[in-house]
Amino acid sequence: QQQLGLHQAETARWDSPFDYQEQALWFVPKGLPEPSAPNYTEKVMELALPLVEASQGRAFLLFTSYRALHLAADWLDGRLDYPLLVQGSAPKTELLRRFTEQGNAVLLGTSSFWEGVDVRGDALSLVIIDKLPFASPGDPVLKARLDAMRKAGGNPFMEYQVPQAAIALKQGAGRLIRDVTDKGVLVLCDPRLLRKNYGHTFLDAMPDFARTRELDVAVDFLRGM
């Protein structure tokens, strides 16, 4: 509302039709390095592999950069027993068609797969997100907006960048549960979620999934589906 200038608008909120506590598990892993570490993507893939095996493919791996996506694709090549679909190798609609029809594929994508993608049923049971989705600071439109907020005495990081990233994260997480019969595991790998004091903004924005920090619990959930 603040960004739109609708300071006195009437608002309403409706409960979700989904039973998130029963349908979904949110896994926040332990022991990953900071996202700036040079081996971060490799460590994320090492964590992802047993989860993808437990889900028998049927996974979206969502990245905040093309560099991380290509590093992940190279690392996974030859390590998976499931079809690997990588953004850029075919049009988006074709990748989604293959993903749905094959039923056990692993799809790697960036921002265009974070929203507006609707895969229902057994084809998707695992969504892994590599980092908190902060917008690129190199975007000139974003830079101008942040500069204007700073000149007005605001805190652009906490007042704009964090809330926008929280919305993007919720959209990415929303790929998992699209129907009342869907079940699955969401993995957010970024340790800043729990280490930084702005992490509560992301936690508050997310659906009310059951949560765990134990890999074995997430693997068992997937195997029991």
Automatic annotation (TrEMBL):
One Pfam family from the record: Helicase_C_2
Record-linked InterPro entries: ATP-dep_Helicase_C (IPR006555), DinG/Rad3-like (IPR045028), P-loop_NTPase (IPR027417)
GO MF annotations, alphabetized: ATP binding; DNA helicase activity; hydrolase activity, acting on acid anhydrides, in phosphorus-containing anhydrides; nucleic acid binding
Organism of derivation: Thiolapillus brandeum
Family: Belongs to the helicase family. DinG subfamily.
Lineage, broadest ranks: Bacteria, Pseudomonadati, Pseudomonadota, Gammaproteobacteria, Chromatiales
UniProt cross-references to SUPFAM superfamilies, sorted A to Z: P-loop containing nucleoside triphosphate hydrolases (SSF52540)
Annotated protein name in UniProt: ATP-dependent DNA helicase
Gene Ontology BP annotations: DNA repair
Keywords: ATP-binding, Helicase, Hydrolase, Nucleotide-binding
Domain ATP-dependent helicase C-terminal: 66-195
